[in-house]
Every structure is written in structure tokens, then in C-alpha cells.
Design a protein that fits this description.
This protein has 373 residues and is of the alpha+beta class. 61% of the residues lie in helices and 15% in strands. It is built from 13 helices and eleven strands.
């Protein structure tokens, strides 16, 4: 989801990453605070002070978001789950859970940890704002009062039961606890999230046409995000439920057509790809798997050179990044694919080709399982 994110540092072994979209919203956030919010509540001050307050508030707010996500992550790690990264992006932050919680209790505690952190930060901010205001430090008081308020708003907003927001995960945990069925709980929570996402869009549009301006547009974007992520989370849950306990050997395409590395690209295209209607071809010599060649590799070679270019000159070698054994769990393979790995893998055992598996194989297997279940 965040292939272009930049890792800036690590905390507790977790990569802290910034998506390019974060820089856009951070700049707009600081600008809005510097030219609208702080001049409105602190009139007559210097522009330098407004910019300083705006940039500081922006950095501290995103620091609060990071603490919110770290709260989720620390609780998850305590339950034995692995957190690969925390990414800040245009709509906030997200912790990259490698696995789903194994119980409704764990789901609830992980989900509620973030809003509790935001409530705590909100309370601290308001207390500091009141103390500094009483001490006569009005600009600092305004800064911390703002941070306290925005963290409380963040906590409350995140508790809206729109899956996969925190409130949606709390809802899923409750349904999971009472019905003892995670897939059913995910279905209900995702549908609720989708409906609320459409609600955000409607409210945003209404706000915009009634003078709400940017805040209305922002709410529409959040609605689109919630609808998209709710559907994706539901689909991912259905796929994982359908694949649970199944190995790659059960899902793969066995004994696929292969090509010798001494074949020219022209012969490969005419005699294999077009003749067999395949775009991904393992490269095998004397029974040993060497790698693969596909249409993307072909696109990198000029067509007038296909007759004099051998497969051996351009094929991609088999590595652990594109090859799995037949007994590899299919759920884990799908997680690798969705995390940015290739959508097609070679399946090999003791250096010999056993098959290939693609995301299409996976989806066909899941669809058939649901139809016949």
C-alpha cells in the first residue's frame, strides 16, 4: 500500500516511515495553522511567531499520531504479533500488522490502545495549556491547548465504528466475542464501515455546498478512504479464511510449460507464449529450475533483437524472493503478494520445478471453495 514510503528511523525494531502524501498534508497543515488558526486566536503577533507556532503544532501533532500508532504496536507486540512498520500518510497513520490477532480480546486491546493514548495526550495538552496560560505564557498556552483539543478530537473520531478505523476494530472484537466467528464479525464491521464511509461523503458534500470549504472536501476524501479500506479488509479476510490450512501445492498450476535458456526470444514468443497463451514461463535446463521469463522482461528488449537474443541473456533467476516450496502456507504467500512481492511465484522443490502460482490461481481457489462450501 505504501511502496514509496521513506523510512526515517526505527523504534523498538519498527520502521517509522513517511509516505510522500504526508509531506503534502504536513505543509498544508502548517500553513493553515500559521495563516488562519493562530492569527485568529492570537491577534497582533508577529508573522514569525505564527509560523513558529504553526510548524511546531504540526510536528507535535504528527508526533502524537506516531504515539497513537506506537500504542497499538506495543500492545500487539506484547501479544506476540509482529509489527513491520508504522507509516504516516495523508489520512493519519497506520501500523503494519504482519498477522491478525488470534482472539477477540487481543483485537479489542490492540484497537483501544490508540484512542486511549490520544485521550491521555489530549488531557496532558489541555492541562499544560491551562498551566502555561495561568503563568502568562499565552502563545505556549495556545499551542498546547490546540494540541490537547486536536488529540481529543482524534480519539473520538477514531472510535467511530467505521472498520478498519479503531472503532471499527472494537466493533469487530465485540461481534467476534459474542458470535465466536471472526469472518462474520469482519463482514458486519466492514459493511458498517462502508455505510459510514458513504455517510462521511454525504456530510462532506453537504458541508462543502454550505460554505464548509476545504473541511467538506477533506471529509469526502476520508469517506472514500474508509469505503475502500473497509472493502479491501473484508476481501482480505475472506481470502485468508478460504486459504487457511491450505498449502501452495493445492492451489498452484502444476507442471507448467517451460523453456530452455538456449531458445531465442522470437521462438519463445511464437512457440510458447502465443501457442500456449501464457505470459509467465519458467526457465529449465536438464530438469533444474533456473528462473523465469515473462512479458515484462520481453518489453525491455527491442523487438528487432528478439531473433538474436537468447532467453539465457535476459531471464530472471530463481531466488527466495520469487520462489516458494510446495508446502508453503498459501495465506503467507498472499500476504507477501499484498505487501509488494510479485503476483506470480515459481514453486520448486530440491531445485526442480513443481508448478507456478499466481494471484489469479488464489482467487479462483477461494471462489470455488466458497461456491462448493
Amino acid at each position: 500500500m505504501f511502496k514509496n514510503a521513506i523510512t526515517v528511523f526505527r523504534v523498538y525494531g519498527i520502521d517509522i516511515r513517511l509516505d510522500p502524501s504526508w509531506f503534502i498534508v504536513a505543509g498544508l497543515f502548517a500553513w493553515s495553522l500559521s495563516v488562519q488558526y493562530f492569527p485568529g486566536i492570537l491577534p497582533g503577533q508577529s508573522q514569525l511567531l505564527y509560523v513558529t507556532l504553526g510548524v511546531t503544532a504540526m510536528l507535535l501533532f504528527f508526533g502524537s499520531l506516531l504515539l497513537h500508532e506506537l500504542a497499538h504496536s506495543v500492545v500487539a507486540i506484547g501479544f506476540g504479533l509482529k509489527i513491520e512498520s508504522i507509516t504516516l500518510f495523508i489520512f493519519g497513520g497506520v501500523a503494519g500488522l504482519k498477522d491478525e490477532p488470534d482472539s477477540a480480546r487481543h483485537e479489542f486491546l490492540i484497537a483501544i490502545a490508540g484512542p486511549l493514548m490520544s485521550f491521555a495526550l489530549g488531557g496532558i495538552g489541555l492541562l499544560l495549556g491551562g498551566f502555561l496560560g495561568g503563568a502568562g505564557s499565552i502563545p505556549a498556552a495556545a499551542l498546547f491547548a490546540y494540541l490537547g483539543t486536536i488529540n481529543l478530537v482524534l480519539a473520538i473520531f477514531n472510535l467511530v465504528p467505521a472498520f478498519p478505523m479503531d472503532g471499527g476494530r472494537v466493533l469487530r472484537a465485540a461481534i467476534w466475542h459474542f458470535r465466536k466467528d471472526r469472518v462474520q464479525a469482519t463482514t458486519v464491521a466492514a459493511r458498517t464501515g462502508t455505510m459510514l464511509g458513504y455517510g462521511f461523503m454525504a456530510l462532506g458534500a453537504l458541508s462543502f455546498f454550505n460554505g464548509g470549504g476545504v473541511s467538506g472536501i477533506w471529509l469526502v476524501f476520508i469517506g472514500f478512504f474508509v469505503v475502500g479500506t473497509s472493502r479491501a479488509a473484508y476481501q482480505q479476510q475472506v481470502i485468508e479464511a478460504g486459504l487457511k490450512g491450505h498449502r501452495v501445492a493445492e492451489v498452484m498450476t502444476p507442471a507448467p510449460v517451460s523453456v530452455d535458456p538456449a531458445v531465442t526470444l522470437e521462438d519463445l514468443v511464437q512457440d510458447v507464449m502465443l501457442a500456449r497463451n501464457v505470459g509467465f514461463v519458467p526457465v529449465v535446463r536438464d530438469g533444474q529450475l533456473l528462473g523465469y521469463i515473462d512479458r515484462h522482461i520481453l518489453h525491455g528488449v527491442e523487438k528487432d533483437k528478439w531473433a538474436v537474443t537468447m532467453v539465457a541473456d535476459v531471464y530472471e533467476r530463481a531466488t527466495p524472493e520469487n520462489t516458494v516450496p510446495p508446502d508453503f502456507p498459501t495465506v503467507e504467500l498472499v500476504q507477501k503478494m499484498t505487501a509488494g512481492a510479485p503476483n506470480k511465484f515459481l514453486v520448486a522443490e530440491d531445485g526442480r520445478l513443481r508448478g507456478v502460482i499466481s494471484i489469479n490461481d488464489v482467487m479462483s481457489f477461494v471462489a470455488l471453495s466458497q461456491e462448493l462450501a
